[in-house]
Amino acid sequence: MKRNILTATVVLSLGMMSAAAFAAANSGEAIFKAHCASCHPDGGNIMKPKETLKGLKDTKKIIAQVRKGGGGMPAFDAKAISDVDAKLLAGYIIKTFKK
Ligand code: HEC
User: Fold this and answer.
1) What's the predicted TM-score (pTM) here?
2) In angstroms, what is the span from residue 69 Cα to ligand 1's centroid?
């Protein structure tokens, strides 16, 4: 009986840990920090200060820029950032960098 409780506790805590890891890996913020924040800290642009991420509203345009890059920005294909993650990322940018 004691052993069952122990097993249940271990299984439960492992489950909670992987749920947390899953959420972090798939949040727009985590994707942004991993791939974009080096050049776009706080939604700015260290290479072209006028080309910021502030006030962007169009998910498709953001995803298009991510996929094709250009102007000094690298392209990110679906292996680097999946379609699902690209949408989360665009949503995070729109919601976070308003001005
Ligand atoms: C190596 C630096 C670098 C990285 C990394 C980078 N960018 Fe950029 N980004 C740039 C540069 C430089 C431009 C300006 C391009 C131009 O002038 O055509 C830009 C432009 C953009 C634009 C267009 C802004 C506008 O006003 O239209 C978007 C959107 C964008 N980046 C999103 C991202 C996202 C999302 C990521 C992460 C997946 C990312 N960038 C990663 C350098 C970078």
Assistant:
1) 0.82
2) 7
